[in-house]
Amino acid sequence: MSALNNTATQAGPGGTPRGPVGGAANGGVGIVQFFTSRLREIGIFIALIVIVLLFQALTGGRLLTAGNVSNIIVQNSYILILAIGMVMIIIAGHIDLSVGSVAAFVGAVSGVLIVQWGMPWWLGILLSLVLGAVVGMWQGFWVAYVGIPAFIVTLAGMLLFRGLTQMTLGNTQITPFPTEYRQLGGGYLFPDLFPASSSPAEWITVALGALTLVLFVVSQVRQRAKRAALELQNEPRVWFLFKIIGGGALIAYLTYLLGVAPGSRGTPIVLVVLAILIIGYSTVMSRSVFGRHIYAIGGNRTAAKLSGINTRRVDFLLFVNMGVLAALAGIVFTGRLNSAGPGAGNLFELDAIAASFIGGAAVQGGVGRVVGAIAGGLVMGVLNNGMSLMGISTDVQQFIKGLVLLLAVAFDVWNKNRSRG
Predict the structure, then answer these.
(1) Which ranges does the record mark as transmembrane (predicted)?
(2) 324-334 confidence digits (pLDDT tens)
């Protein structure tokens, strides 16, 4: 217990320093020292920016067009949803290999309920999410209460739910789905309210972008003021200003691409869903008791048990949550394709795992952030999209993605050895 408490006073979730610092009155630690201590967290965002700029140049400016940015968001939305749950699983020291099969199974069941049985689309979606929770309970029971390693349980689940998908569909596809169902995966917010033919901008998108910008600046200022009031280590003023200006510019530019630029179609509905998930799960992981328990279990499971944390309950709830998110990803993917097929969800689990590790999650657990996993997923998405725009073949794309994953894990190992040294 003392070991756990000592660790908690030195670092917060994801390895964020939390102890008092004598230089707080001067605005925090030096920029070099700060950047070095946050290299794991900051590096992925720098890498994302570099990759975007690289492919923007290599594709002759085609990457950052309004239509292509919308495609990147929509095409990678289900992987980003899975990455949110996957990074939580990895932080706790587990892995889930079944999420692709679960997504396919839930998509198939939703097709049977809505298309074949004529159930209302909203009820079919609700029951599909409940089914995802039941699947998560099934796997969580074996991991948390029987004690079978998650790798084995979810490997079995990958085969089990893939088989159930094929049995449900009878090796055929179910299509078409209702318009309302398809909107979740590929629709836009109120597309007819401000049509491009009669409006210079999609004002809903502009308003959402302005609101997001204000909330971002206010949250950053309040967070910095709160840490200063508590005499906790704060980031350097230079970095704080850079983050405010850079983040604000990114939000403004994305708003321009989605709502004002030629070819813009407004805000994808799935982007709103992703924003809610990112904010909600980031808050849970950084500010709730449950989130701190996840980090404690991943950092030292034995110490977490001795401190009184119900590790079985936490593990069980993690897999229930993963089941619900896998179900949501399956619904989004099925809606985007307007089809539920037996081959859906193939390799989704590998993309979600890769996004988590590229985003800074530690292989041994205990370290990682939801925002980092989203950034890792966007790195994979930009790589896929950029190489496709360049006409690079699929086999070369797979090679490059595998190399990026290997380098990300190697960087994690190097960074950990450097910190110990």
Answers:
(1) 42-65, 77-95, 101-134, 141-161, 200-218, 238-259, 265-284, 316-337, 370-392
(2) 999 999 999 99
